[in-house]
UniProtKB/TrEMBL annotation:
Subcellular location: Cell junction, Focal adhesion; Cell membrane; Cytoplasm; Endoplasmic reticulum membrane
One record GO biological process: defense response
One of the Pfam families matching this protein, by short name: NAD_binding_6
A molecular-function term among this protein's GO annotations: NAD(P)H oxidase H2O2-forming activity
One Gene Ontology term, aspect cellular component: focal adhesion
Protein name from the UniProt record: NADPH oxidase 4
Keywords for this protein: Cell junction, Cell membrane, Cytoplasm, Disulfide bond, Endoplasmic reticulum, Glycoprotein, Membrane, NADP, Nucleus, Oxidoreductase, Transmembrane, Transmembrane helix
Catalysed reactions, semicolon-separated: NADPH + 2 O2 = 2 superoxide + NADP(+) + H(+); NADPH + O2 + H(+) = H2O2 + NADP(+)
Enzyme class: oxidoreductase
Function according to Swiss-Prot or TrEMBL: NADPH oxidase that catalyzes predominantly the reduction of oxygen to H2O2. Can also catalyze to a smaller extent, the reduction of oxygen to superoxide. May function as an oxygen sensor regulating the KCNK3/TASK-1 potassium channel and HIF1A activity. May regulate insulin signaling cascade. May play a role in apoptosis, bone resorption and lipolysaccharide-mediated activation of NFKB. May produce superoxide in the nucleus and play a role in regulating gene expression upon cell stimulation.
């Protein structure tokens, strides 16, 4: 039973160790998202679950690793107690009742590599918990990169050759009789054969044969022509993990070459509520609205990098692209201090021609996200919470350049913030887009609703500059059920894409409402931002 469990769990581990790497191939996922010919919308929506799939494979690896270790502890004990002197090459122990199974597990190559793999897996799993990722992201990042050590040990783990199979079944079939060896004491001699040197090549009658003997098959006795020969099982682990691992290594090499050249920072803007905007330029950089990039600043951290959604994408007329990042944590604080002359200033714009030496910044990407699909629906509902507005900012900037080339014909934009100052991040963009659509006689193209959780300082946004947003500013939280019913009533028998980037509480509510039915025949397809 121990061998069966260990072999079965090993097969499950091979499969999951193969699949767990694929969601981390971000270039491949971005290609599939951007190619409508290769992948349909349903297939592309499945890619939104890449992070969930990765976590599921990781949990499965942890569970079956524990089962695999437990089964091998039982195997080690059985190897020691069931030492067989007839087939010495099959024994994993050196003698019967060897010191302990722990000794066996330590002297064998599978045992040593297995113990180290368990330790590495324990570090990776514990550092992946939500509490550690939030409190100290560096621990999560560095321990997760131990996966390469884990895979190298996995390849060595199966090279011990503990389990073996017989190679000469034709010459020595299982249960055959070897005339060169003495018969077992409990073996019964056939009654009709009295010759002390019988010819076992002839077929005796069935009643003369002991039916209970294992070497009697199909009413005749099989003779061994040679001793059994055993060989270690050929490892299949490399067959499972070599392909995905090579694909990931090639992609990492490609990403390193692509991001090797630093970008040119054109301006840095400090917004209210600890939000920093960085605008950059890079040769041959192309991105689609809704995608994200990974920023790496060696002066902040030699190895650490972080993903940020593009709030401005390069177009045919301008090569500038930008990101908005909220200053929370050590990395963003150090990055802000390097970019700004005085980090306590409320607003600071530094043009490119000003003599200011910015630190070197490397950009890896762009990579795909669910929000690329927002322009492929006829009607889309975009819900943002706080800084979660960043992926929708690139979509609004794209619509500002021109909306007629996209399938989207109506956009519901909901933005929920705690303080009034947060709306100033993209208030100018919303006003310019609103005025443009009014001039083009399409005021119904975008429906803007701004919700303020707190009422302190509400008078600050009311003025001539943001007059277009005054009627769209509401106090409190959205009544999601009524909002969904109203949208479904105005868009009967249509498929509406729902996109959310914000707190999990809002995401769960929208997900539940999207899956619920309505009396208008409207279908809601839920999409959620999830960095890989």
């Amino acid at each position: 039973l121990g061998l069966c469990v260990s072999r079965a769990s090993a097969s499950v581990l091979n499969l999951n160790c193969c699949l767990v790497i694929l969601p981390m191939c971000r270039v491949l996922l971005a290609f599939l998202r951007g190619s409508q010919k290769v992948a349909s919308r349903k297939t592309r929506r499945l890619l939104d679950k890449s992070k969930t799939f990765h976590v599921t494979c990781g949990v499965t690896i942890c569970f079956f690793s524990v089962l695999h270790v437990a089964a091998h502890l039982v195997n080690a004990l059985n190897f020691s107690e069931n030492y067989n002197e007839d087939f010495l090459s099959l024994n994993a122990a050196n003698y019967r009742g060897e010191v302990s199974q722990l000794y066996l597990m330590s002297v064998l190559v599978p045992g040593l590599t297995g113990v180290i793999m368990v330790l590495v897996l324990f570090l990776m799993c514990t550092a992946s918990t939500y509490a550690i990722r939030v409190s100290n992201y560096d621990i999560f990042w560095y321990t997760h990169n131990l996966f390469f050590v884990f895979y190298m040990l996995l390849i060595l783990h199966v090279s011990g050759g503990v389990l073996k199979y017989q190679t000469n079944l034709e010459e020595h079939p299982p249960g055959c009789f070897n005339p060169n060896k003495t018969l077992r004491q409990n073996m019964t001699v056939p009654k009709a054969i009295e010759d002390p040197f019988p010819d076992y090549t002839t077929e005796p009658s069935p009643e003369d044969l002991p039916v209970s003997e294992p070497f009697v098959q199909n009413n005749f006795m099989r003779i061994c022509s040679e001793e059994p020969k055993f060989q270690s099982h050929f490892s299949e682990t490399w067959f499972w993990i070599s392909g995905p691992l090579c694909l990931y290594c090639v992609e990492r090499l490609y990403r390193y070459i692509r991001s090797n050249k630093p970008v040119t920072i054109t301006s840095v803007i400090s917004h209210p509520s600890n939000v920093l905007e960085v605008r950059m330029m890079k040769d041959d950089f192309k991105a689609r609205p809704g995608q994200y990039v990974i920023l790496h600043c060696p002066r902040v951290s030699a190895l650490e990098s972080h993903p940020f959604t593009l709030t401005m994408c390069p177009t045919d007329t301008k090569a500038t692209f930008g990101v908005h990042l909220k200053v929370v944590g050590d990395w963003t604080e150090r990055f802000r201090d390097l970019l700004l002359l005085h980090s306590n200033q409320d607003t600071e714009i530094l043009p490119i021609f000003q003599q200011r030496r910015y630190p070197k910044l490397y950009v890896d990407g762009p990579f795909g996200s669910p929000f690329e699909e927002s322009l492929n629906y006829e009607v889309s509902l975009c819900v943002a919470g706080g800084i979660g507005v960043t992926p929708f900012a690139s979509i609004l900037n794209t619509l500002l350049d021109g909306w007629k080339c996209y399938k989207l014909r109506r956009l519901y934009f909901i933005w929920v913030c705690r303080d009034i100052e947060s709306f100033r991040w993209f208030a100018d963009l919303l006003c310019v887009l609103h005025n443009k659509l009014w001039q083009e006689n399409r005021p119904d193209y975008i429906n803007i609703q701004l919700y303020l959780s707190q009422t302190d300082g509400i008078q600050k946004i009311i003025g001539e500059k943001y007059q277009a947003l005054n009627s769209r500013l509401l106090i409190g939280r959205p009544r999601w059920k009524l909002l969904f019913d109203e949208i479904a009533k105005c868009n009967r028998r249509k498929t509406i894409g729902v996109f959310c980037c914000g707190p999990n509480k809002i995401s769960k509510i929208l997900h539940k409402l999207s899956n619920s039915s309505n009396s208008y025949g409207t279908r809601f397809e839920y999409n959620k931002e999830s960095f890989s």
